[in-house]
């Protein structure tokens, strides 16, 4: 299953893990968006629920665990090349939860990792919409 120029959308998960006004973010080590800061996540494996995928990806990429239950948001991420062809298409379920345990360290596809204060989200190159998504989902969780 190719991630670039796929024959069908790929289903993935993303995890907004937060702790003391900070968000756990990873610097992507692979395309698409290599070198951009993002929420940890990845593709759902065959036979795996969305929740299982979210828990696995968070642990693999960061070594952390969070209190996760249901997706907080689902969205399409579609990129096109200069000719208008779809170069990537992901359907992403975003989970949001408070940090539970684990020593945060970059692993798997993550080139780097950091607990980013909310006021510093715009100070780095992120995947499209990430700062806005983080603020919106954290505001929803507080209600």
From TrEMBL:
<keyword id="KW-0378">Hydrolase</keyword>
<feature type="domain" description="Nudix hydrolase">
    <location>
        <begin position="8"/>
        <end position="139"/>
    </location>
</feature>
<dbReference type="InterPro" id="IPR000086">
    <property type="entry name" value="NUDIX_hydrolase_dom"/>
</dbReference>
<comment type="similarity">
    <text>Belongs to the Nudix hydrolase family.</text>
</comment>
<dbReference type="Pfam" id="PF00293">
    <property type="entry name" value="NUDIX"/>
</dbReference>
<dbReference type="InterPro" id="IPR020476">
    <property type="entry name" value="Nudix_hydrolase"/>
</dbReference>
<protein>
    <submittedName>
        <fullName>NUDIX domain-containing protein</fullName>
    </submittedName>
</protein>
<dbReference type="InterPro" id="IPR020084">
    <property type="entry name" value="NUDIX_hydrolase_CS"/>
</dbReference>
<dbReference type="InterPro" id="IPR015797">
    <property type="entry name" value="NUDIX_hydrolase-like_dom_sf"/>
</dbReference>
């Amino acid at each position: 299953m190719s991630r670039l120029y796929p024959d069908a959308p790929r289903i993935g998960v993303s995890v907004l893990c937060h702790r003391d006004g900070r968000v756990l973010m990873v610097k992507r080590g692979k395309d698409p968006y290599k070198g951009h800061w993002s929420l940890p996540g990845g593709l759902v494996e065959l036979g795996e629920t969305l929740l299982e995928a979210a828990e696995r990806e968070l642990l693999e990429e960061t070594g952390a665990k969070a209190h996760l239950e249901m997706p907080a948001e689902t969205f399409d991420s579609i990129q096109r090349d200069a000719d208008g062809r779809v170069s990537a298409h992901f359907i992403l379920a975003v989970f949001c939860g408070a940090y539970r345990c684990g020593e945060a360290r970059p692993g798997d596809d993550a080139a780097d990792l950091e607990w980013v204060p909310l006021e510093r989200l715009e100070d780095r190159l992120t995947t499209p919409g990430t700062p806005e998504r983080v603020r919106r989902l954290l505001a929803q969780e507080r209600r």
